[in-house]
Specification:
12-stranded mixed beta sheet; 990 residues; 10-stranded mixed beta sheet; globular; alpha+beta
Length: 990
């Protein structure tokens, strides 16, 4: 029998170096928006003269101006985007094959004046007419004056490459735009077996997030296949390639400036070809527009696609172009856009989906988003193409792009794998999940022949009881010995029966067995159906704006009050208050999605708020319905059956409230730390603290909250809130944070407590780090936001030490000299920090790159496969500072992409009844770990640094999640989920 291939995997990251001598033929030009001060002054003056009963905040429609510019001049890379306070700039790039073609300042000024005139029309009839007219007249007079010396300014590409932060970080947009421009109009060929496929690259403006730039897409491809149910399916997709500029701590060029990496990010973008009948309410609809003739006389166009958006927050029967763009284009006297009704109703007619060479009119491509439904044969369905590519296809496309760029990009070297993470029988219990706990023992053929049926039953029962002990011990450790009370609040008997059974399954209870002594379970029927009714809008609809929101707030308070009464009368009396248990409830709330019911009408937030105000943690479940059985014999008394999806949904809810909401692990974390390589004497006492934050938007308010979670070596979990000195048990923290958010909802004077600025984050981090206590401690923190400093968003302050340009020089100090209450730089040997083993900074998302496995180079033919185990990799590109990368194992839900056939499938391939477009390929993201401020005993060898990184790497598990690895280490996961659970109280939809 051949041996298993146990070679450690190789990881080739899709990050490239720039060859700086290859940009000689490229040109870049900038033009500033010289009217920013005039615009700001107009905005401020208008806010002063508006009627008192109107909102005083005046919004500057820069996005409307930019969309209008780009709709007329597709040769621009982007319009007047924000660079700094009062500094807005437009950008254009060109190459020898795609030369620079920009509108003149005089042409731009004409459009800017018209834009300003259209803006002032919005204030007709508002405030006192004479005051409003006076402010508008002064504004237009000032805007009519064209500044002297206002012109396009050339920037040398070499300057941006040598200093990526030059020109206020312009290189982060300009360099990807260079690369997209170089590839615009180029063709590459990918090969799958004997099939060849040409890809024609085309640049696209506008990615819809932050400052916009260019990326490239292929021509549309039509995919036809037969799905798993034998139905013929078809759909259109394009290959999308984004170039992202990123930097790495300690990676500098010869001038001492951060040396950029270029990340290649390949994704699948799908186009609609059938009428769009169901969208994601409140989220804009994206359309890519290609112009094949001038929209405005004198303004050159090219084949670049421009991203414009359709407003999806208006009336259900009206979805206009966003920001009144048709009105602005009409004022420009530009050729009109196609109507949104026509595009949404028949997208195949308005986009050149079949790549006809004689197409000479505008192109409109409706970009698909998850959740969209289309009309098909009088029914509705989602998009037929499943997104993503196999690693094999990803590797081929990247290799061909590198060939086209011909030495412009130099690929990075492969990374080498760390020691394997614990797996199999030797896995510590703290790394186990419910899937392992609930799995019955298996017996070999020889054992079955040797053992009697009774002996097998005894062994199975013995193993089940051992695992029951593991479960009860885990809960006792997390709650530090306190009892717990679960209330099941149900309306329908099916919901009650399934939930009770899944709760029993979670404890591995057989029929007739009771729950453990310290765990009490009570069942309460929701006897009043009005408790589950959606909030009553009294006829108001979202388009009614403030009146609709006012009605929702009124109804929320009424629903909150009746639920509190219900809890006080029916639930709390059943709780034995003498034992002071932690209290949790699993609550049936009906169906969360109903036709004609707006998401804001959901009772979810009112129920959660009622629970926290009555000191009860909560988990909502939707009503359970049994399988329908048309042939059911009514004379036969059979138990109802439920589909696996329904049972799985209820089990997940039960495990979440039973394990995650109390912070439980099935084993002792210290065992994990020992396996990571931490010395035993340290491992048995090690605390792991994660600094966690979450930012979101609620109406016009930015909600930004943070907390710290501490996982102790014993398995106990505590939480620390900002401006507090006391750690509290995680099981109690949900109540605390819920009550904080409830207070904010009721009294906006407390709003600043959930709107943390950068300096608040820096102070919280400093407080946590300098109060680590008597136990050895490892602290985890994300780079994102904790390090940033963008103007008013966070008071211009943050923990700047975490930035890539600073961390190498300051790796052995803590620089809090700008932080109130600290105002100093802490050295590594400071007495307060003697038990702090180190800090690990995390980056992920766009800040880590895609990859391919098992290849030394992109043009290798070696078969690539997703990682089937949690894997760690060392990065030696910065010798002075150790970097570690963690990648989770392929989730169980993605097993379809791991067959021998699927691994080699391209999107348009079909083989052995498998089609590339019928597989939703998903590959695990890289998580970068950077240890710094390391105690001297862990700085001696690279192995010591690896052992610290393996701690959060191995902790990417959750006992309540059996599908795969979680995205963040367990304590960070707990903190983020804790905030997320209760944001609904503030009206935030997560």
């Amino acid at each position: 029998m051949p041996k298993k291939d146990v070679r450690p995997p190789i990881l080739l990251p899709a990050r490239m170096n720039l060859a700086t001598d290859t940009f000689a033929g490229l040109k870049i030009e900038l033009i500033s928006f010289p009217f920013a001060e005039i615009v700001d002054k107009f905005r401020n003056s208008m806010e002063e003269v508006l009627s008192p009963n109107r909102k005083k905040k005046v919004w500057i429609p820069y996005r409307q101006l930019n969309n209008g510019l780009l709709a007329c001049a597709s040769t621009l890379t982007h319009g007047f985007e924000y660079f700094d306070t009062g500094d807005y700039r437009a950008l254009a790039v060109g190459s020898v094959e795609n030369p620079l073609r920009v509108p003149t300042p005089e042409q731009i000024h004409e459009l800017v004046i018209i834009w300003a005139q259209e803006w002032t029309k919005q204030f007709d009839g508002k405030g006192k007419a004479d005051q409003v007219n006076s402010v508008c007249d002064r504004f237009l007079e000032n805007m009519a004056i064209i500044p002297t010396n206002w012109n396009w300014q050339p920037i040398t590409p070499e300057k941006l490459i040598q200093d990526i932060n030059a020109e206020k970080g312009l290189g982060f947009q300009a360099i990807p735009s260079f690369l997209a421009t170089l590839l615009h109009g180029k063709i590459c060929v990918i090969r799958s077996g004997k099939r060849e496929q040409e890809i024609h690259w085309r640049k696209v403006q506008g990615d819809g997030s932050g400052r916009t730039g260019l990326f490239i897409v292929s021509q549309p491809f039509l995919a036809l296949y037969t799905d798993d149910y034998g139905k013929e399916r078809e759909g259109y997709f394009v290959y999308r390639l984004d170039f992202r500029v990123q930097t790495q701590t300690g990676r500098f060029n010869q001038n001492g400036k951060l040396k950029p990496w270029i990340f290649l990010d390949l994704s699948c973008q799908r186009y609609a070809h059938e009428p769009l009948i169901e969208t994601n309410y409140g989220r804009d609809i994206s359309v890519l527009i290609g112009m094949n003739e001038e929209r405005l006389s004198g303004y050159e166009v090219d084949s670049t696609l421009i991203r414009l958006t359709i407003d999806n927050s208006a009336r259900e029967d009206s979805k206009p172009w966003k920001l009144q763009l048709p009105n602005l284009l009409a004022a420009f006297k530009a050729r009109a856009l196609e109507t949104t009704e026509n595009i949404l109703g028949n997208p195949a007619t308005y986009g050149n989906l079949d790549n006809n060479s004689d197409w000479n009119k505008d192109e409109y491509y409706l970009v698909h988003a998850e959740g969209y439904k289309y009309e098909h044969e009088k029914h509705k369905r989602g998009h037929s193409i499943k997104p993503g590519f196999s690693l094999q296809e990803r590797g081929d496309i990247v290799a061909q792009v590198l060939n086209l760029l011909n030495g412009v990009l130099i690929p990075d070297d492969p990374m080498q794998c760390d020691i394997p993470a614990p797996s199999g029988q030797k896995t510590p219990l703290a790394m186990r999940d419910y899937g392992y706990i609930s799995e019955p023992p298996t017996f070999t053929k020889q054992q079955k022949e040797k053992l009697s049926g009774e002996e097998i039953k005894q062994r199975v029962d013995k193993r089940r009881k051992e695992k029951q002990t593991i479960i009860t011990d885990a809960i006792e450790r997390a709650l530090e010995g306190k009892p717990i009370h679960f209330s099941l609040l149900w309306r329908e008997r099916d919901t009650c029966d399934v939930t009770i059974q899944k709760l029993r399954d979670a404890f591995l209870l057989n029929e007739g067995e009771d729950f453990p002594e310290h765990i009490k379970v009570a069942s309460v029927r929701i006897d009043d159906p009005n408790l589950l009714k959606p909030l009553n809008t009294s006829g108001y609809v979202p388009k009614d704006g403030q009146e609709f929101d006012k009605q929702i707030r009124k109804q929320h308070q009424m629903k909150l009050d009746v639920w509190r009464d219900f809890l006080k009368q029916k639930v709390i009396p059943l709780i034995d208050s003498t034992t002071k248990p932690y209290c949790f409830a699993i609550i049936e709330i009906g169906q969360t999605k109903k036709k004609g019911v707006h998401p804001k009408q959901s009772i979810y937030r009112a129920v959660r708020e009622a629970c926290v105000l009555e000191n009860i943690g909560s988990q909502m479940v939707q009503t359970v319905k049994p399988k329908s059985s048309e042939k059911e014999d009514e004379s036969t008394d059979t138990s109802p059956s439920y589909n696996k999806k329904t049972e799985g949904r209820i089990l997940n809810a039960v495990l979440d409230v039973m394990l995650r909401q109390i912070g439980a692990l099935y084993g002792i974390p210290s065992e994990v730390y020992e396996r990571a390589g931490i010395p035993k004497e340290i491992a048995k006492n090690l605390d792991v603290i994660a600094l966690c934050r979450r930012k979101t938007t609620q109406g016009q308010d930015n909600i930004h909250y943070a907390l710290a979670v501490r996982l102790r070596a014993t398995g106990a979990v505590d939480v620390l809130f900002p401006n507090s000195n006391n750690w509290i048990p995680y099981a109690q923290a949900g109540i605390e944070i819920g009550q904080i958010f409830s207070q904010v909802r009721r009294d906006r004077n407390y709003l600043n407590t959930v709107q943390l600025k950068g300096i608040n984050l820096a102070k919280f981090a400093a407080d946590v780090l300098t109060q680590v206590g008597e136990q050895p401690t490892l602290v985890l923190i994300e780079a994102d936001v904790w390090r940033n400093e963008r103007g008013e968003e966070n008071g211009g302050q943050a923990w700047f030490q975490l930035k890539n340009e600073n961390l190498l020089a300051k790796r052995d100090v803590l620089d809090f000299q700008h932080v109130p209450g600290h105002t100093c730089v802490y050295p590594r040997d400071h007495n307060k920090l003697r038990n702090l083993l180190g800090i690990i900074r995390f980056r992920t998302g766009d800040e880590t790159t895609q990859y391919i496995t098992n290849r030394q180079a992109w043009n290798d033919n070696s078969p690539a496969r997703d990682l089937i185990h949690l894997s760690g990799f060392s990065d030696i590109s910065v010798p002075e500072l150790f970097h570690y990368f963690s990648i989770g194992r392929l989730p169980k839900t993605q097993k379809a992409q791991d067959t021998l056939t699927a691994r080699e499938l391209y999107m348009l391939d079909s083989q052995d009844d498998e089609s590339g477009v019928n597989i939703a390929f998903k590959h695990q993201q890289m998580l970068e770990m950077l240890p710094f401020f390391i105690r001297s005993d862990f700085q001696k060898t690279e192995e010591s640094l690896k052992s610290l990184c393996r701690v959060p790497h191995y902790l990417r598990i959750s006992p309540a999640w059996s599908i795969g690895n979680i995205h963040s280490p367990y304590p960070m996961h707990l903190g983020k989920q804790l905030i997320k659970d209760h944001l609904c109280i503030l009206g935030v939809e997560v």
